Amino acid sequence: VSRQLKEEIRRGFAGLEDPLAALLAMLENSSAWKGKGHSLGYYITTELELWIEEHPAVTQSGIQLKKLQARVLGILSQCPANLLDPLISIYQLHTADRNYLLEHVSHLHLKGDYKEVAVLSIKLKLQPDQDVEKMCTPLLLQDKANVVEDYVREYPELQSKLLQVLDTWCEPGFNIRDITRPYQGLSTYKPEKFNRKTLSKLVFRLLDRFNLDPALCPNAINQRHLKTLNYLFYKRFVEKTMTEENWADHIQNTVGENRCLQGHLVRLLLRHCERRAAARWARHCGVPTDLLPHGLAEELRELHIPERVEEATKTDNYGDSKKKDYYQLPIPRENIHFLQTWEETLQCWEKVLRPGQVVGIDMEWKPSFGMVGKPRVALLQVALKDEVFLLDLLRLLEQAEEEEEKEKLPHFIQMLYSDAAITKLGYGMSGDLSSLVATCSALKDTEKQLQGVVDLLAVDKQVDGQPEHSHEERGVRQPEKGLSLLVQHVLGKPLDKTEQLSNWEKRPLREEQILYAASDAYCLLEIYERLCKDPESFGLSSDLTESLVGKHSKKPRTEKQLNKQEAPSPSGQQCQGSKVERCRGPGAVSPREFSVVCDNMLQGLGRYLRCLGVDVRMLENEDDHRKAAEIARQDGRVILTSGLPYQTLQSQVGEGRCFSVNCSEKAKEQALQVLKHFNVRVSLTDIFSRCQ
After folding, report:
1. Sign, CA torsion 4/10/16/19
2. Name one GO biological process term (predicted).
3. Strand 566-568 and strand 574-576: pairing?
4. What tens digit of pLDDT does each residue of 351-408 get?
5. Secondary element (H or E) of residue 392
6. C-alpha dist (Å) from residue 125 to 159, 160, 548
7. DSSP string, 519-578
8. How far apart are CA 381 and CA 520, in angstroms?
9. Measuring CA to CA, which residue among 388, 390, 408, 412 is closest to residue 398?
10. Is the pLDDT of residue 231 over 50?
11. Residue extents of the structural domains in the chain
């Protein structure tokens, strides 16, 4: 607002006998202020609020104030949100008679102004004296759950009451139409947005949002458990992608001693198993005999149940003969280490926290099947080229707490994720990190400090030519998806996911779980290496570094930050951490003074540069990319590489000693790019000077 307008408004206030009454008269006789945005009425009102603070003598009290309060209440329900607070402050509505305020909002509620009533009640803090069900039901029917959340936000008792009300609507046999019928005349009524599914989601969101005890909502919890049972039976008997031990463990945890769930379990057993098998599982899961149908109870009496439950459900769990259909770990079993003590973990960190390492990282947690709260990471897998470390995270954190050294493990994890010299590979890193923070709050800033990470989920979205999906064997086999599909496409075989839904908090881990966990982390190394060697055959850019490394944590930066950190080189690539002058290379040099080591995907470039007189060494096809760094350090050579290896290699040599070449160009164009970047001048005498 211009200074001139402000001064004019203030002069107007000073000249009025009763500015408060005058403002109301203006608002009552005009409608221009009712629209969205900052109207003239808004500016006058907010300016009066400030002016009153400087001139407290103009405030009213007693009967005169009550009259003004009655008048302002009449227009509050029509006010845009930005006028509510100034008017409440100017007319001191927080000091008004509470019963009078409650009577006023009750009248508005009867008129059907449900949202306006809720907003006004929130501003005047009337919620403790209102009926939470009466206030929130019409809002939910209008798809205004966000207003409901605001309404109960500051009142834990109301949060509990609301959830108990919502849970009664989840009772079996409850007809939702009974609560919607009185409100069907609502102009904004959205019945399609209010059903059992959305109701269940709302209950769980509010439980999580307000950190309330799930025991408040037994019906909603029961419904979720019923869905979990159906899902487990589908995974075991239709898809056939869950082992018997996993299945039995989850079934027992889900059902417990709940008679309703036990009854549902029996019905599912009879639908999916033979009678004898159903009887065995009913006994194994502790189902009371009075819940069993007569025939099943008879079958149970005839059985001689051994201590260990026999394999009763023949589901053709694919055996060793079919393991060949899946990705197999290329390292021996003795190179997989399960770590439960700090001493063991220190040996792991010594190997992992080395500059130039490429590390595959994955995490496992107990499936929650849609229940409240974020999962706790039970296992942290860290894969190196020759071995895999499985960190028993819950045990290690518990041990650290017992020894009052809570910061030790988080410190090392943060060191790993923030070290730009170590390339970290993951798949869907954001979700993993979120669960890691939920497990250990000391890691809450890890995501802000990420450096040198490659999220292969970003690669997955760019990979072309996904293979056809097979639907044979293993029941109704589902198409591979996620990491398993990427493994199948890049390495030829999918991951075996039968252990994915294991109870990862149960100890000891089974051998199958250990192998699954190690494979999930190690396959990231093999995918990365394969994509680095031949990105174009997968439809990817020849230079993946710019788009993938660190992409997970990149945020928009100011022009000043960009100029400071990333100056463009003549080749168009980003030379990180160096100034423009450095990127352009030193003074002109001859090819004989210029020595390089070419990565194995650039052998054509190496031969071309050698013809021009450059001192060139080339990696063989079977050599690891990291060998280039060893040669560069020993001989003082510049590394020429491309794609993802650039990020790994450039951190292992001096600044400006590693260059990323565009693989999509021919050797001649690549050579010109290199010569221009390093200011190498070729003369006629240099050409073929190295030929024998």
Report:
1. positive
2. nucleobase-containing compound metabolic process
3. antiparallel
4. 999 988 999 999 999 998 878 777 899 999 999 999 999 999 999 999 988 888 888 8
5. strand 388-392
6. 15, 18, 50
7. HHHHHHHHHHHHHHH-GGGGT--S--HHHHBTGGG-----HHHHHHHEEEPTTS-EEET-
8. 8
9. 408
10. yes
11. 220-303, 335-463+481-547, 591-678
pLDDT above 90 for 517: yes
| DSSP code for 95 | G
Rounded CA gap, 230 and 238, in Å?
Answer: 11
Q: What is the pLDDT of residue 663?
A: 74
662 pLDDT higher than 90: no
Q: Which amino acid is at 77?
A: S
Q: Write the CA distances from 407 to 400, 404, 419, 447, 531, integer angstroms.
A: 8, 9, 18, 17, 37
- Long-range Cβ contacts of 101-105 (<8 Å, 24+ apart): 101/73, 101/126, 102/126, 102/129, 102/130, 104/73, 105/130
Q: Is the pLDDT of residue 556 over 80?
A: no
Beta-sheet pairing, 453-455 with 595-598: unpaired
The CA–CA distances, whole Å, from 645 to 349, 453, 546, 624 equal: 23, 12, 11, 10
Mean pLDDT for the chain?
A: 83
CB 510 within 8 A of CB 245: yes
- What strands, in cross-sheet order, belong to the sheet with 336-339? 336-339, 388-392, 377-383, 358-365, 423-426, 453-455
Q: Longest C-alpha distance within the chain, in Å?
A: 110
Residue 565: band (very low, low, confident or very high) from pLDDT cuts 50, 70, 90:
very low
Q: Which residues contact residue 51 at a Cβ distance below 8 angstroms, ignoring those fewer than 6 apart? A: 10, 13, 19
Classify domain 335-463+481-547 by CATH architecture.
Answer: 2-Layer Sandwich (3.30)
Residues 49, 56: Cα–Cα separation, whole Å: 10
| pLDDT band with cut points at 50, 70 and 90 for residue 653 | confident
Say how many C-beta atoms besides its own lie within 10 A of residue 375's C-beta: 19
Q: How far apart are CA 289 and CA 297, in angstroms?
A: 6
In this structure, the strands spanning 388-392 and 377-383 are antiparallel
At 562 the pLDDT is 30
Q: Which amino acid is at 181?
A: R
| pLDDT at residue 149 is higher than 90 | yes
Q: How many helical (H) and strand (E) elements, i.e. helices and strands, does the chain have?
A: 32, 12
**Spatial contact of 136 and 148, defined as CB atoms under 8 Å apart:** yes
